[in-house]
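User: Continuing from earlier, I have the next pair ready.

Assistant: Great, send them over.

User: Here they are, in order.

Assistant: Folding the first of the pair now:
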Amino acid sequence: MLKMLFNFLKTIAALVLLVTAGVWIFWMPPAVEPDYRFVKAWGGKGSLPGQFNDPTGIAVSATEVYVSDARNARIQVFDFDGNFKRQFGHKGNGAGQLGRPMNLTVHGVKLYVADYWNDLIQVYDLHGGHLHSIGSHGNGPGEMNAPGGVAVASDGSLYVADFYNHRIQHFSPGGAFIGQWGNTGETGILAGEFNYPTDVALARDGRIFIADGYNDRIQVFAKNGEYLYKWGGPLAMNIFGPFHGWFATVTSIATDASGNLFVADFYNDRIQKFTADGAFLTSFGTKGNGPGQFRHAMAVAAADDGTVFVADFGNNRIQKWRQTSPAGD
């Protein structure tokens, strides 16, 4: 009898170990790409050129880095080595003025700024000349309540993360409202629902990546608005954690030249990298204020040469990273 009980317990233990291993592999995958290495950082708290007071957004052109310097209500521009080049914008709610600039997008010869406090998208040329703005305060079609991020399609149409309205809005190149995803003013954890979305990025095939910020996940849609898939923790249903592929508030996303997706994992103080299908590739960063450490990785941008730039929010600086060797070498 004791032998039968012992064998039964061994069988149960083996099953538990098998299930645990399966869960670990499925929800906590290992890194499959080479590590990224810290290259340099620049900044420091202040209002002088090259200093920051809450850097909240970042984008790159072929040769320059654009940073949302939120509490200084300006955009600062640097070369890839962190040398200050110019700045534009100042606090206000008039044409070209900024409230709290958040995530940025460079598309062609234009810079698109999600202006969180002014409830609109500001559009500049890359030298800082204000061109026009899109949106106004409210919760109706085409109105916004604290936009957090914007993406621009090849045809010039825009997708906006409308933070407090818990939706993604789609606009024509001229700023006319086309449609939306999500239920205005309602949070949810099911597919196609949002909980304070923070940013949007686009794949080359038109797929739309949504940083579903407080649901701790990424949602993906087809360009016709059809929901495709999601990832982030068990079942991608608002379960946060520190493991690979899990998040603790997603604040920014960006694609690279190969179509991979970089995710700013804010409270986990790191950047995670995925394939466009959501397969975990690698991550970098730890909590702290030393080289290669973050006090909340707020925003991320990937240059065509493989360089990754990160807005290190709490440390009021920008960090530059490179992969130790190309993936697959």
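And the other member of the pair:
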Amino acid sequence: MSMHQEDSADFVIVGTGAGGATAARVLCDAGFSVVMIEEGPRVPSETRPAGLLDAMSESMRDIATVATRSRTPMPLLLGRCVGGSTAVNSGIIWRLPDDVRADWRLRFGLDELVDDVELERIFARIETDLEVAEVSDEIRGGNADLMKIASEALGLPGRAMRRNAKRCVGNARCLQGCPEGARQSMDVSYVPYAVQHGARLHPLCRAERVIIERGCAQGVRGTLLDPSSRQPQGTFHVHAARAVIIAASAIHTPVLLWKSGLRRNVGEGYQAHPGVAVLGRFDRQVGMGFGASQAYEVPLREHGVKLESIALPPELLAARLPGAGAEWQRDLRKLDYFAQFCAVVRMRARGRVRPGHFGMVDVRYEPLADDLRRVNESVALLVRMMFAAGAVEVYPGVAGLPERMTRVEQADSILQRSVRRRDFHLMASHHFATAAAGIDPETSVVSPTLETHDAAQLYVMDASVLPTNLGVNPQHSIMALAFRAAERLANAKRPSLRAA
């Protein structure tokens, strides 16, 4: 029997990640009624699966198989659960860089949105709410310790990461979702806060169309999903008395807008931070299974690159090892002796996002030649860092290079070759700019208030609105911009806004 659910509120928010949960928190504090719609399930911390595949199946979109459509597909990591990608990331916190703020003011007219005084107030508030702190030496872990040794040996500007996980005990399970609830992702912070202050949460509800009448957003329609099979079992309709807020990610927000009839500039200008990783084998135990999943970083902003330590669950680490048969099995016996460093690249390439066939998403994105040059240089630097940290073998994981390097001099050969896209295994977890903010409706999708140019009472509050990529982890910036926009929206709808 097909089910149907009806609900209504002042504000309907699609998505419970960094943007949607933050908007809900602000609007509930202002005294408005809020309904939160989430396509994925609610996954309590205490019931999160320890196995990687089970965890990814439950919390990530299509078990992390979403990829760009190209001859060399690039996987795109996307959370699909209450809390969105914040529930399965490492909780790395960076404030919006000053050069990005200046660029957005100059090129996109976003002076009010990125007002320095307001943003600093909001950043400080969020950091208090989410218990942001620098990773301590005690829970840094062996993988990050080695990156620290390498950065100091090579004179690189390394530093401990700042994360929203002051109570982290070093389970190294961020990708599966913190079993302790120590990382203050949205599913354990702003979503329950909003619910405690009157919001209603509807998980397993796939939004499929914003209802727009006479140029104004009126609500959201979609499909109810069965908790076990995730197959359709009915429909829902949520009426919005004051506004609809879309926060479904830079990949799926443009798809929802497109299906709702908004096409101008939607899905254009997609940007990302693709990453590449290098493995090193050491003659002593590294202990990748203990520590923060990511704890140490080397920002090289002038080069458009940020280097990071990243611990892998055993299932993924085993898949990264070269070789086959007996050779591969010998390496498996040494899993605890491996470390992994990665490079996240601020690419200049721009792509496009559209609805695909059979409910899929069509993402077109190809790195530019200069982007690939920086990837190649990053691999060479990571190889040098591994040897500087004491690795006995380094596995660059790049086609055309030796599977195993045993001398630091071999890193020079990386820079002496021609670079091809198909040589690199790239993966992107940061996505931007598919519903970009700006004052000009001819080149943007939303105004500086984050209301869409082409439909009143329809707002976007996620990474889609960021008109460029940042070069740093975007969660904190997404939350701050959503906080700022939601406060301004609440003030516009009710002048007697209480202090948040």
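Worth noting for the second one:
The radius of gyration is 22 Å. The first strand starts at residue 3 and ends at 14.
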